[in-house]
Amino acid sequence: SAVISQKPSRDICQRGTSLTIQCQVDSQVTMMFWYRQQPGQSLTLIATANQGSEATYESGFVIDKFPISRPNLTFSTLTVSNMSPEDSSIYLCSVRAASGYTFGSGTRLTVV
Amino acid sequence: TQLLEQSPQFLSIQEGENLTVYCNSSSVFSSLQWYRQEPGEGPVLLVTVVTGGEVKKLKRLTFQFGDARKDSSLHITAAQPGDTGLYLCAGQDNYGQNFVFGPGTRLSVLP
User: Fold this and answer.
1) Dihedral (CA of A6, A105, A16, A78) sign
2) pLDDT by residue (tens digit) across B25-56?
3) pLDDT per residue as tens digits for the range A32-91
4) How far apart are CA B84 and CA B13, in angstroms?
5) CA of A98: which chain B residue's CA is closest?
6) Closest to B29 measured CA to CA, from B60, B72, B59
7) Which residues are CB-neighbours of B9 under 8 A, at least 6 positions away?
8) What's the CA gap between B92 and B100, in Å, rounded?
9) Cα–Cα distance between A94 and A104 in angstroms, integer?
10) Contacts of A94 in chain B (CB under 8 A)
11) What is the mean pLDDT of chain B?
């Protein structure tokens, strides 16, 4: 299965600033997925990132708040823009194979 | 939107005990997966079940997919502290596109 390197692993940010999270996959994949996991809760899909096209966002998530880049088949970034304390969460990237998802180790974001 | 419920939400047991956690929905899924997530890590896939009534075993873990493909269970025999973590089920819709994750069962196995 694919191996995903995600960074940063954690960060503490001031409200109003932005943070860009990076995910590198060790193989080429068509789709990459970005999830949010709020404290004590399960995973919520933010968007699906396809190489060469705009990301597809789920209900409740917009491009202005969570811009995504997908410059090639092994890399993607998610930016959390104009952060507020409500954005404090774990953010995870993942790829999907026939057997299931492989996840990065997550970015634990705290907004103060 | 297909929703998954998991129970119990929290479970704390002693090492050596057996336990079962459940994943339920009113919707039918084409497949269902179980993941374990440890603190500071992303979820790791444990198993995928696709056939109604299917039973899969992974060492001390036994997974069952309901006959109607609406529910699943995970049974752990002789739990160990290394089993501690958040157990998530995820169901795939019948279009084979998206997965929806349940809220998880947080298991703590005390030595």
Assistant:
1) positive
2) 998 998 999 999 998 889 999 999 999 999 99
3) 999 999 987 889 999 999 888 889 999 999 999 999 999 999 999 999 999 999 999 999
4) 10
5) B48
6) B72
7) B103, B104, B105, B106
8) 7
9) 6
10) 42
11) 92
pLDDT score of B52:
94
pLDDT at A99: 74
The reply to whether residue A99 touches residue B48, judged by beta carbons under 8 angstroms, is yes
Tell me the residues of chain A between 46 and 75 that have a Cβ less than 8 Å away from chain B.
none
d(CA A72, CA B50): 32
**Cα distance between residue A62 and residue A25, in whole Å:** 24
Q: Is the dihedral of CA A101, A105, A109, A110 positive or negative?
A: positive
The token pair that represents B4 in the structure block: 């998954």
Closest by Cα among A50, A77, A37 to B102: A37
Provide the percentage of residues in chain B whose pLDDT is more than 90: 83
Distance CA B18, CA B28 (A): 28
Asked if B41's CB is within 8 angstroms of A106's CB, the reply is yes
Closest CA to B28 of B61, B71, B63, B86: B71
